[in-house]
Design goal:
The structure holds 2 protein chains of 2 kinds. Chain A is mainly α. Chain A has 7 helices and 1 strand; from the N terminus they run E-H-H-H-H-H-H-H. In chain B, strand 3 and strand 4 form a beta hairpin. The chains are: A mainly alpha, B alpha+beta.
Chain lengths: 157, 123
Amino acid sequence: MATTPAPVGGARTGPPPIDPRGPRFNQAVLSVALVVGFLLQDVGGWIVIPVWALVLFVGAAFGPRYGPFLRLYAEVVKPRLAPPSELEDPRPPRFAATIGTVFLTAGTVALVAGLTGLAWGLALVVAALAGLAAVTGICVGCEVYVLIARARGLALS
Amino acid sequence: MTARLLVLLALAVGCGALVLVRARWMQGGVGAGSRIPDGLVPAGQASWLVLTTPWCASCGPVVERLEAQGELPVVVLDVAERPDVSRALDLRQAPTVLRVGPDGEVLERRTGASAGAPAPVPF
């Protein structure tokens, strides 16, 4: 017997849930790229900062179809995997990608301004949190989104 | 290069610490022995209380699994509409599933996407 007053979760107010492994794949590639770029910054590795700022921006702004690594996951990796055991609301990971975009864009500006230390500091924060999410599933940006939404009392249509 | 590797190592250690702190924090909040506010579940009978949020994609399947088991009544509460309940219970994640006794005492707490699974049968 159930006394369910309303549909639960994203079915009531949110967009269709997504396979959480897509954002995790994107975060893994991002983290590795930034770390490698950091280690090879003397031979042009700095390029990963503006490139990934653009990659994250495109995926966050226009949807996973336009994010190259999200698209790669959807079309190449996912068909080779078993169906996901759970789904997730796309809004928190998209917010996390937006935060990453902001950090890497600021890093790009810092690079242009000659503030290499600041640029890599910002990039390594993104690399660390992206790597954390990819390995453990703990998405700090997602949890910030949840805290903000909770504080604002949003139903989030 | 050594300095850069040390920076990366420090970051990895920092992330590990963050994981541990978060795991510790997640264990807090409402649990067995707590009492839930009056009026959330039917009085005088045991029930499942499922605490959900609008952005919790796992919550729907958890509710469906609990309902399918048919053991106890299932009450679903969207804490986005009841932030007072979220604060009172110190909710840490969604879904949080509480098995509530007839007197309003929490007997069991489960969290996450597997919260709706039947309890394992002991050997």
